[in-house]
Q: What sequence folds into this?
């Protein structure tokens, strides 16, 4: 995960310039669902032009474009649905902040969907255009994450989509996008728990970089999900004919989840930050213990080594009574041992009293 | 206590899907109190259908459902009292944020009741539905925590419940839920005091994990009680026919307690965070002391050991006057002792001046 | 000072339950001042019932109840002056947040007066009831802290109290309560200065717990004085017939002091928090110095000890020219000394260059 | 980069005093573009007086003054275009906060353009005066940073500039100024990544000062870009005849970028701050490892050295059976080796169990 | 600089009590400027009573009182200009928060002027009373800091003061007071730069207390300048006949400076706080280096000393082939040297690989 993950045009580029950042040569995969109260029609299109037919009908149409979109497709869609240049530019320049733009008879939303790929956080930018009876959703993932919704639509007993306007479909998509943070947070929670255990038991060097990486991921996730929460707040308050008042209760539910996600992120971040302090304290504690072992060993043996050194001296003057007479004493050697045992006992007692042993 | 404690449906699940997270097979325990100004009737029901009879009467009815609720009971209650699907889903998915939903002629509240179980914090999610003349309260605890209120209701001299609308009962329940934070905070305060003493006297490795755990509990408690305070603020300001203006003074009292609880939590958290710094400082202080002991011992004995080493050398050249003549001096040995005592005295004086002894 | 200092009823207790937390058996001490524009009458009453006489007159009456109040006195006063049950409960449950309640023709205030007792911070809860022509002030202290105000009232040349309504008396009391934070803060400032000096000169273990205690006291004081500031803001903005517009300038002055106190508290807290860092840095600096002494001593003597050890070896083979021939050299011993002096000089030069000596 | 980078007049100087801080002697370089819907005229002027001719025509004129401006040029422009004295003073006193001043028929903006020069952040102050049909832009850089815009204007197929009022030109300039933060942030992101790797792998002393420098640059950049964001917010909300409602969508886009830049800055700063903790933890971890090596070596060899010291003692009393009889034992020497090997094995086992080896 | 720098009356003192905190016996120094559009008259008065003459004229009068003011002068001025008692009390009680009081036909301002005295920050409290055609400014400094303004007034070509109302003079004074923070901040910036260099190169014990002192000064300065900024905001928004709309542009300029000063203070404080972390990291780094030197020396020499100790043992049993036969080997001594060189080489290689050498 890069620190700077935004794509941008060189400063001074004209607004609305469309340059693809990942020029893919594969054809686009367009999944279209056309539905009315009676009927749900589903089709896979090869080119964006084929949407034209559905546009003219008086049915609700969901156009799902999966995989990295190329400039041509985008421009075709832009012309067909009258999409604003600045919006199209945002679709291509990934790494945008979630946002909501109100055009005359269109809503443009950028939403951020957090997913885990190979145990690493990735933020997928989903772009949504909503008109009176169509919704275009562009998602750079190859695999369509919105399959669960399509499944609900296909279910003939489920009349919710059919009986409601296109804003209910928008809600369903946004709800899925928002809720996809929960599995990610669950994985993060597990990681935190693992780290916490490791920290208190056996801090390793690796733990430090693990904490750091998680903190970065939390920070990054919060940076994109915070404006997403704002987006949902705005959607709930906006007075736009495209948003029906009776869908609001669903948006409120979605917003509640969004708030809960942010709160979880905040507290995870708090905990991750606190873990660095624990790491430091834990290391200091271990250094202190290491020191104590060294000090005990050294403090006991250094005086003893000195004593045996004394009696290793070679002072010899047969005429002098002062030339290490101890060496010739009858009990000299046992007495030295006695002295050394006494010193050791004294130091052990001293360390015990200090609580070091 | 898990980092991630929320139950959620897999993203893309239809709103209002009811799946029990803890499928209990035991029958539900329903405790019903039906009261008017004159009379208090109390009954234990075996199935939710039996409530029907009370619903039709013009009396105030409190339906208390204890223990983990199963999907069937919930659906029956939902049909009978016309409860919203999204609300029922929230009742089952525990770990929700406290919230207040205003439906047309109903209030739906989720409240969080902190309790201590085996010295560990637990947040119990209490769900409340309030209608014109009924209140349904669902609490996953086996043992009914609201017994004190029932006791007050049974007291014939207490006319408060009887003479007031159902919103006074709601207040009584919310007041009990809010106030149950006080014993928890008292226990936390005692823990903090214990830790503080331990930290300053004798920091152990265990202390570190104790602080960390308490910090997590405080963080967790704050995360759920903060929106609970908001809920009470909203209740005080909401203009809903179900809330009488003359009950407001009681809600205000309850809100005051809630504010005080948050403030206590904040300052406890501040103190717990500060304790990590104290732990670190305390450990560093101890390392410094250990170091000082080692340095004193080593600095005194290392030179002495060197000296006795010198006179342990075996230079012998009978022809040389330079071959360690000291060894043959008459006062050689006492002179060496004199030198060593002088060095020791000098070092002791040096350490005293530095304030190390 | 306890972490958890609030008195509370067990959750589920009926609102307005009066239970004394410190059942004192001593009779209450009631000090009454009855004043008009012409006259100031002062009396000590033995029982609350005696207030009745003054209540009926058209004079301003200040009823000061000192010492821990018992339930009976409170109930008598409550009945006589028509005080709200919830308010009376708050008077008894000490450790309340400062607050202002507006009743129909009465104000109820809880104020927090910080004082120092035996060098420890104590927050005294003063409860005030203000009516059209009476003010009841309950203060749990034995000694009356409001004597300076009484002195001003007795002064016949001071017409301010006499010529103004009861809200001026309220101001005078609140002003004294607010300003009593200044001597406390002055004492704290002195303590901080002392600690700072100690920290930078000679950090002791005791310093750590002193800082911690002061931080707790500052945190605690801020927690109660912050809502007191809000209370004064509300008093300035409230439109209540009991508060005259021309007293507002005095309330504003009092509010200004309150703001200044909070700001001082905040910056004291900032400094106290910063001191922990200084303590840690200071200890680390000392550890580093200790280490340096040890390293210098050890680094110089360890090689020397090795050298003298070499020549303490007993290799002897009269036939071998390799069996420590140095021992038999004519200048062997002085050469060893020369080598050792050279090594010492080299190391001293090395340490000098590193700036360690 | 200096901590204090603002130019100011000595306190008490009259407002509007013009003193150049960097008296350049070179002639000014003025680049003028005069454009209408049909035509784009471009010219380089030698003196500000030559602008006069264009001012009178009914065309849109962009006057770009590059390089450090001198007092005379400024005064000439001031007289010609009726610029306010306080604004001119701000142009000369570099290091101003970005701001927007609304005069009667003129806008005055100070914008901050971050660029990297020799790998160091520099904030260039761009001053803009906007009137009904002219825009004066003063930029202290020698090389014109706005060339990309001029290129777009020269393109005959681009009718945006020609067909819109002068506020579109203002947008284009502000957009370029805002977006020039992206390359700077990209470079900072790369630096952060490098530091992070270094910190976790091999923290050097230099890393500490690198982090510190980056933190200062981030802090500095945030200090000037924060008010720039406010400026753009104000521009979007201001009701001024010079700003057309249909340009607002462009300003909103520019504002969005500005918000994203601030958010990136904030999270970079968070990461940089966290890195100091990682550095400290990393160093502590290394100290702990060093200590462990020392302790293992010392703890193993100190007892061994003591033992060999014991048998280096010279106790000799031919008559005493206590005078180190071990020395004369048949297997004395191998037994000592056995003892020493046993001790070493014991200690190695002890260290293994502690996880130190 | 004291932590608690406020003068206050003992709690319970009557509002408006005037007690001088520094009873000076020197006569007051009053500097009066009386000016109209045509004429500027300047005079030094010996007593406040002499102002009376100017008060009655229809001219603008600036009364500047320098040095510590005594109670009598203040009371005379108070009576003459009808100044409020609470305001006079504030003038005497130095250490007030900057504030603005609107009286009926008068403004009362307290402003804080930061200056450096002997390299230490001092906050001078300037009190200003503004009436229809007079301005009284009381400044406790002996030397008049407002001389630059007087110089501008004396300049006959400068018609700004003469042609405008008294509020322009107020602006000029406030502008000078505000801008006097710039030289102080410039000095602080230089100090920070010096400290930073010292910290990264050679942290000394003194550095710690320098950082701490600077942090305190920044904290203190921010505490008084923050409300000063508010004061200027209020002045810009207040609708008072004493403030003319066309002076507002000047007040806005002054407010801009004030904002910039606060921002600088904040970022200086951030940097000073960060420096403590750098100090700690730097010390830890040094401790680690010291440790490394010790460990290298000890780890190399301790095994060698052990080896030479082995061959210093006195095992002698002429009959035993096990009694240290090495001592009698022909190449015994060179072999020991070979062993020791091999060990040293091995350890040096080990340290190189670890990056310690």
A:
């Amino acid at each position: 995960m890069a620190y700077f993950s935004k794509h941008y045009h060189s400063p001074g580029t004209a607004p609305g310039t469309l340059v693809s950042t990942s020029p893919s040569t594969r054809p686009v995969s367009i999944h279209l669902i056309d539905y009315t109260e009676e009927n749900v029609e589903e089709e896979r299109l090869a080119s964006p032009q084929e949407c034209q037919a559905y546009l003219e009908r008086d049915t609700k149409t969901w156009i799902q474009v999966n995989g990295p979109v190329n400039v041509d497709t985008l421009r075709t869609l832009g012309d067909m649905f009258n999409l604003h240049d600045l919006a199209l530019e945002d679709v291509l320049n990934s790494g945008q902040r979630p946002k909501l733009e109100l055009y005359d008879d269109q809503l443009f939303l950028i939403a951020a969907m957090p997913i885990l790929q190979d145990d690493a956080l990735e933020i997928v930018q989903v772009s949504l255009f909503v008109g009176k009876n169509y919704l275009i959703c562009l998602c750079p993932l190859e695999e369509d994450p919105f399959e669960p919704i399509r499944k609900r639509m296909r279910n003939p007993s489920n009349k919710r989509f059919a009986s409601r306007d296109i804003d209910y479909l928008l809600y369903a998509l946004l709800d899925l996008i928002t809720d996809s943070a929960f599995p990610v947070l669950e994985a993060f929670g597990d990681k935190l728990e693992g780290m916490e255990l490791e920290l208190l038991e056996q801090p390793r060097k690796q733990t430090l970089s693990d904490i750091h990486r998680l903190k970065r991921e939390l920070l990054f996730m919060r940076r994109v999900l915070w404006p997403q929460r704002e987006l949902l707040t705005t959607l709930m308050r906006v007075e736009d004919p495209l948003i029906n008042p009776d869908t609001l209760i669903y948006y409120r539910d979605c917003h509640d989840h969004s708030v809960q996600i942010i709160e979880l992120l905040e507290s995870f971040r708090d905990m991750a930050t606190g873990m660095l302090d624990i790491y430091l304290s834990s290391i200091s504690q271990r250094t202190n213990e290491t020191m104590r072992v060294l000090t005990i060993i050294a403090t006991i043996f250094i005086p003893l080594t000195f004593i045996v050194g004394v009696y290793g001296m070679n002072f010899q003057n047969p005429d002098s009574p002062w030339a290490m007479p101890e060496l010739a004493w009858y009990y000299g050697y046992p007495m030295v041992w006695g002295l050394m045992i006494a010193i050791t006992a004294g130091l052990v007692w001293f360390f015990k009293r200090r609580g070091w042993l």
Remarks:
- The longest strand of chain D covers residues 106-117.
- Chain D has two domains: 29-282, 289-354.
- The beta strands of chain D are 29-35, 40-45, 60-66, 99-103, 106-117, 120-130, 134-139.
